């Protein structure tokens, strides 16, 4: 039987990524981010979300892509991910957010295994939507390992 899951689809450069709806708390318009000294390059700083300081990571930089300035479509996706010490709330800056969509987990392809040194640990699978590839992110692996450092910021 098909295992259908809902995902929020995000655009970064010309690529489409998917984040499980169960991890997404809210989607915010871009806003001012308070920088912190000596933070890693992909850690943009913190924002205030209803009285809580939320660290924000740049998805482009986290995935090894070139940086890009904000546009009118830039969004911050507030997520709850699992770190080694428990759940952590953080924001993820994306070029744009498309929609909530359904993907069949039985039809997700595994990440390609063409190079043993390539870090595919953050990819849950590759799906297809409207003729395009959609990379389903494993947010706990992608963000959870660094979340303890960010939560201390």
From TrEMBL:
PROSITE patterns: CHEW (PS50851). One of its GO terms (cellular component) is cytosol. SUPFAM superfamilies: CheW-like (SSF50341). GO terms for biological process: chemotaxis; signal transduction. InterPro entries: CheW, CheW-like_dom_sf, CheW-lke_dom. It comes from the Bacteria. Residues 4-148 form the CheW-like domain. It holds the Pfam family CheW. PANTHER family: CHEMOTAXIS PROTEIN CHEW (PTHR22617:SF23), CHEMOTAXIS SENSOR HISTIDINE KINASE-RELATED (PTHR22617). This is Chemotaxis protein CheW. It comes from Devosia soli.
